[in-house]
Each structure stands twice: as C-alpha cells, then as structure tokens.
Amino acid sequence: xxxxxxxxxxxxxxxxxxxxxxxxxxxxxxxxxxxxxxxxxxxxxxxxxxxxxxxxxxxxxxxxxxxxxxxxxxxxxxxxxxxxxxxxxxxxxxxxxxxxxxxxxxxxxxxxxxxxxxxxxxxxxxxxxxxxxxxxxxxxxxxxxxxxxxxxxxxxxxxxxxxxxxxxxxxxxxxxxxxxxxxxxxxxxxxxxxxxxxxxxxxxxxxxxxxxxxxxxxxxxxxxxxxxxxxxxxxxxxxxxxxxxxxxxxxxxxxxxxxxxxxxxxxxxxxxxxxxxxxxxxxxxxxxxxxxxxxxxxx
Length: 299
Known about the structure:
This protein is α/β, with parallel strands linked by helices. The protein is 37% helix and 20% strand. Helix 2 (91-102) packs across helix 11.
C-alpha cells in the first residue's frame, strides 16, 4: 500500500531533485519527498500481496510525496484495469467496489485535479501548478500535463498490487503513453471496462450525485444516500455537488467525452482487452455484472 514519506526542516526556498524529478518548495517548512523506485525485472515475475479492501485513496493524491512499498508473496492475480464510460455511468462508484473485490488501488485522476486546488504552492509539483493554471483559464489540461501528473505517481501504478484507473486515459495520446510506460516495465493491462448507459439516465444520475469533500467517496440523493444528509458515511466529511454535475454542465461534458474519449473504445477493442458492461441497475448489480464479465473473459 502507498504511504507518504515526509521530512520537515526549516530552510530557505530551494529546489530538490530526486531521481529525475524536481520539486520547488517555499521558505518555512520544507516537505521533502524521497522516492525509492522498485523496478520490475524482465527475468522474474512480480509477486504481490493482496491489498486490504480498506484502500486509502488519499495516498494517490499526495503526488510525489507518496511511494508504493514493495510487496511480497503472491496472492491471486494482480488486476490492472482501465475504466471507460461517459460522465455519470458510475465509474467512480464501481472503482471503489472493485477495489475491495480485486485488491487493487483505485487511482482517480479527477480526484488529483480537484485535490491540487486545495494545496499550497509548496505542496504542488510543477505539473500540478501547470494544470491549475489551465483550469483557472477555463482551458482543457493538455495531454502532456495530465501525463506528467500521472508519471509523478508512476510508483502507485507500477508497484501496487494492481490498479483501477478511473479518468485516465481520456485520449488516444494518453493511452499510448500509458501503454509505453507499462511495456517498459514488462506489464500489460488486464482489461478495459467500458460502461454503457442511455443519455437520459446519465443526466438523472449526475444531477443527484454528491461527493465527499475529504475522502472523495460518491453518494446519490436517491440511489445511494448517506445515513446522515450531506455527511459522508466513511469519514464524516461534508458532501457537496460538483460544479460539473449541475444540469447546465452535463451536456458540455458529454459532448467533450464523445469527441475525445470515445475513440479509445475502438483502440482497446483492437487490442483485445475491451469489456462492455451495461451500467443500468444498482451499484451492486453493475458490480456483479462487471466481475462476471472480467472472470469469463480473462480467467
């Protein structure tokens, strides 16, 4: 499991280079990240421990200050999965549920972007700052910047006992970069799950979705309400409606998805790893459908 390693000291502003990465920090408390890479050997298969169902997704948000500890004995299969589907099909919810069943890390790039806005300049990597600049101007974050944020977290992708990527890749260029990274480490994707849902159902789901401001768990006002209104069941954080979940934003998001992300369906279909799943029904029903498709297709 990923755990942050942080050293603090009182120093003037400085720049620290760690294994090819450079992170700028301001005066005052200095947060120094030490990244200890553990690379795979082409001669020996990787061995993994099954991870606890209680995966702490916050470690993915720490960026370069997090490392994935090497793990030992092999317990079952290490699943490496990409989730595709238009906004509102339930990728985040399914990623959380799949994490508990498959023992993989839930890695959400959307959560990384949202968390970046809550950090001080000292805690932001160059890629984070660049992404925020684009977002403040109302511009799409380019592939190179998105990829840099993912690359900063490469140890979470390469060293965890499998992963479930939610929100990345979104373009063919990003898919190519991910494929190259994994091939360099003699890894491959287990499956790419494409969740399919009618447009009218997507609109209904998005407008009722509520997200925890702390742990990023997702609820729904009618289908998956919290035990206490506007309070997260997991951590007690405040639930809120994301700006891109208001009805006015939904049509824009769907149009952007179909123009940039939908071509990935054909790309992964050609690679023979695409799994199509009907995203209608309850979260548990969709989970059962997903697990059945994965196990029948790739085991």
